[in-house]
Write a sequence for this structure.
């Protein structure tokens, strides 16, 4: 029986990146739907759960995508509310690639250092990747500072992650050089998750930080988010610190993404959100 994946995108036009990875992850057929909303996803769920007999339901799965994490979370919640008994199929949430990207980045950090008791700073952390990375770092025992140009945006993001995952993140403004220096004080881990093509940090601002051990930049579009890091860096030592560029940990992100798609077809009751995807990433890295 064919393995069918329904890509449910909250944007008007489904993201082709997610479609390609869905096929590479093992789906026989990917059916893409755009402009999916919590109020409209119910009929799609019904079609997925009522068509195949119990033993074959694992061959149908749902994949929630799109650029807006809040909208994706609402769609996931609506999907789960439509499930009952064994009338369910596996579902994954990865809006904007946030869960798989964050999981790959934080898994690599945890491979090098014990995060318990460390201070981690997520620059431009109010986007989907930054928020989820902040959650994962906190769950590993780090004190996490989530920064934005405006402190109110950081506060809103931290409150949202507390409601969703019951973790405490520290909001901070880093919109000017003085504020940025204060945010970086005592940082052991630095992760930049800003918009493509926006430089967040000059090399002179991080190279001499005495406590900093590892830096990761999720931006693959020049200029990179952290000056002085190369796109291809993978545990490359620079100024006595380990550096990862977007491609340096991005290849592992794709491995995690594909593994998640494959996992959806193992049973009909898998739900993959940030905690489950992060656990899988750590498991994959430990097996290497």
């Amino acid at each position: 029986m064919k393995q069918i994946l329904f890509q449910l995108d909250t944007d008007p036009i489904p993201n082709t990146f997610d479609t390609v990875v869905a096929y590479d992850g093992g789906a026989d057929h990917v059916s893409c739907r755009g402009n999916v909303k919590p109020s409209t996803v119910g009929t799609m769920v019904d079609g997925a759960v009522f068509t195949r007999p119990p033993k074959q339901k694992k061959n149908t799965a749902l994949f929630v995508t799109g650029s807006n994490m809040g909208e994706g979370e609402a769609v996931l919640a609506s999907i789960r509310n439509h499930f009952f008994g064994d009338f369910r199929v596996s579902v994954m949430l990865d809006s904007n690639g946030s869960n798989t990207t964050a999981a790959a980045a934080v898994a690599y950090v945890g491979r090098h250092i014990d995060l318990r008791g460390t201070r981690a700073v997520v620059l431009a952390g109010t986007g989907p990747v930054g928020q989820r990375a902040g959650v994962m770092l906190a769950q590993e025992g780090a004190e996490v500072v989530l920064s934005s140009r405006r402190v109110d945006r950081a506060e809103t993001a931290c409150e949202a992650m507390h409601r969703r995952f019951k973790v405490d993140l520290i909001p901070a403004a880093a919109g000017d050089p003085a504020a940025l220096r204060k945010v970086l004080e005592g940082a052991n881990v630095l992760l930049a998750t800003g918009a493509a093509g926006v430089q967040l940090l000059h090399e002179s601002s991080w190279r001499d930080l005495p406590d900093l051990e590892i830096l990761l930049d999720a931006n693959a579009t020049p200029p990179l988010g952290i000056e002085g890091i190369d796109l291809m860096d993978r545990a490359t030592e620079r100024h006595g610190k380990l550096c990862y560029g977007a491609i340096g940990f991005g290849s592992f992100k794709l491995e995690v993404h594909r593994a998640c798609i494959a996992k959806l077809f193992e049973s009909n009751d898998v739900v993959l959100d940030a905690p489950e995807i992060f656990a899988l990433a750590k498991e994959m890295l430990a097996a290497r």
